């Protein structure tokens, strides 16, 4: 598998303390991406690591997976490497390791992978197809199709919305969409825009004035709660 980097993180990439792998390559190009170096499929800084090497490394880290922790695959877009990822996820489940994926939810392989994922985190960046394409370079249709199928199946889902001034600040539109779906086992989180990865764009960063205040995040939480949708902060 092509891995850009890895490290431990507590609670922000799934439950407990987790070994987080950033896999190389993404099929979106979100203009605010904080991991812009993970977007190209080729990157000389990324390392090819076999499934068996990764399994070995993960098993050796087992004592670090405290408080319900385990392994998280993120990106880039982890599902671009679906075949190897599925092989690794099966091995991890056979070894009783907790698995988590953070995904843009666009992959047609997501339902195959889902069976071997204990904690699934999906992003949705916009509620409108044209605006989604404008800001991410990709269609919203597959994202919605996958999220709707996952919710229909009744599985746990952690749905994240990055909140960006001038891009998607319309809590009512998001909440209205989700209020029509089966969200009993879903929680929603709102991530305020930041610029921690701006330097990785090497001067090509295009978002201006994207910051939002706590009042905007609170408005998202209150609106979702009003529609009966559960919200969390990590
Ligand atoms: S989906 Fe995630 S990794 Fe891919 S471009 Fe968007 S923010 Fe970056």
3D structure, described in words:
Helices cover 30% and strands 20% of the residues. It is α/β, with parallel strands linked by helices. It has a single domain, classed as Aldolase class I (TIM Barrel). The chain has an 8-stranded mixed sheet with strand order 3-1-2-4-5-6-7-8. The longest helix has 13 residues, at 82-94. Residues 26, 28-30, 33, 35, 38-39, 75-77, 104, 136 line the site of iron/sulfur cluster (SF4).
CATH homology superfamily = Aldolase class I
In terms of per-residue confidence, which ranges show pLDDT below 50 for 5 or more consecutive residues? none
- State the strand order across the main sheet: 3-1-2-4-5-6-7-8
> How many H/I helical runs?
7
Q: Return the structural class.
A: alpha/beta
Q: What's the average pLDDT?
A: 97
By CATH reckoning, the class would read Alpha Beta
Helix share, percent: 25-40%
> What is the CATH topology assignment?
TIM Barrel
In total, how many domains does the architecture comprise?
Answer: 1
Gap from first CA to last CA: 28 Å
Would you identify the CATH architecture? Alpha-Beta Barrel
Q: Whole-number radius of gyration?
A: 17 Å
Secondary-structure blueprint of this entry?
Blueprint: E1 2-10, E2 17-23, E3 47-48, H1 51-60, E4 70-74, H2 82-94, E5 99-103, H3 110-114, E6 119-123, H4 129-136, H5 141-153, E7 157-163, H6 171-179, E8 186-192, H7 214-226
Parallel strand pairs: 2-4, 4-5, 5-6, 6-7, 7-8
Antiparallel strand pairs: 1-2, 1-3
Helix pairs in contact: 1-2, 6-7
Bound molecules: iron/sulfur cluster (SF4).
Iron/sulfur cluster is lined by residues 26, 28-30, 33, 35, 38-39, 75-77, 104, 136.
